[in-house]
Amino acid sequence: MPRSGPALLLAYLLAFASPLAAQNLDSVQITRQRVADGVYMLLGAGGNIGVSVGADGVFVIDDQYAPLSEKIKATVRTLSTLPIRFVINTHWHGDHTGGNENLAHDGTLIIAHENVRKRMSVEQFNAVFNTRTPPKPVAALPVVTFTDGVTFYLNSDTIQVLHVKAAHTDGDAIIYFRKANVIHAGDTFFNGFYPFIDASTGGSLDGMIAAADQILSLANDQTRIIPGHGPLGGRTEVKAFRDMLATVRVRLARAKIQGMTAEQVMNANLLADLDSTWGKGFLTPAQFVAIAYGSLGKP
């Protein structure tokens, strides 16, 4: 079942908290879901994990939290006895990169956009949660970085890793398995609820819409799309998510023109007709509106 409400809020608080705060994960179980031949989604705590298995080894997208690494590796071993060769981080947040150091010690190569390494190398401040994230150990940092994208030819598939600018953060990547017809969208896609946009580290509402447009340009009606959070989806779900964001942008842009403050926007109930469908995540509708409004006009 997809996480929402308090469970997802806990995941995000852990993502921005100190490493010690993320240790209380003993009860979390890692489950798997087949997405396509050789491609799986793993669910636990934090961002959804993608896994490609085949003759060339194991390719993993994101790795949740450090205390879950052994459980994640155990679940991967039920899919393949070959080693995890590569991990791609879709962005810098701790619920997607927390296992980096453990996997790197096993010989796994960590890869991400160049801004992910930059963000993880120094302290980060998140204005929404009023938290500071300390720099990560060198062993947890991506060893290989890219600017616009990188392509893997692995497990009889062509795997394209594509940077999307200023969306959830400034270091987002989406991963497209061309043969399997699967996309891992990272946190550029929250399936079924309002997304968190990390404007403190370069995210923006406009960038989220552009990321959804790029995903839709790659997908067809048969494409399976793994969100950063929420259940497995497809083109229909991404289109609904994109249309919601576009509607939000129109309304917030109008408020911006009218000179409304963030507090006024939060109190104006501008998304009342959308909240019953999209307002059941870890952010309240008012919080989402304030975050999205603050990100308008940012690159």
How would you portray this structure in words?
The chain is of the alpha/beta class and 299 residues long. The chain has one domain: Metallo-beta-lactamase, Chain A (4-Layer Sandwich), CATH 3.60.15. 33% of the residues lie in helices and 23% in strands. The protein has 10 helices and 15 strands. It has helices spanning 5-16, 69-77, 94-97, 100-105, 114-121, 205-218, 235-257, 262-267, 272-278, 285-295, and strands at residues 31-36, 39-43, 49-54, 57-61, 84-88, 109-113, 124-126, 131-133, 144-146, 149-154, 157-164, 172-177, 182-184, 224-226, 233-234. The strands form 3 sheets. It has a 7-stranded mixed sheet. The protein has a 6-stranded mixed sheet with strand order 10-11-12-13-14-15. Strand 7 and strand 8 form a beta hairpin. Helix 6 packs antiparallel against helix 7 (235-257). The radius of gyration is 18 Å and the shape is globular. The model is unreliable at 18-22 (pLDDT under 50).
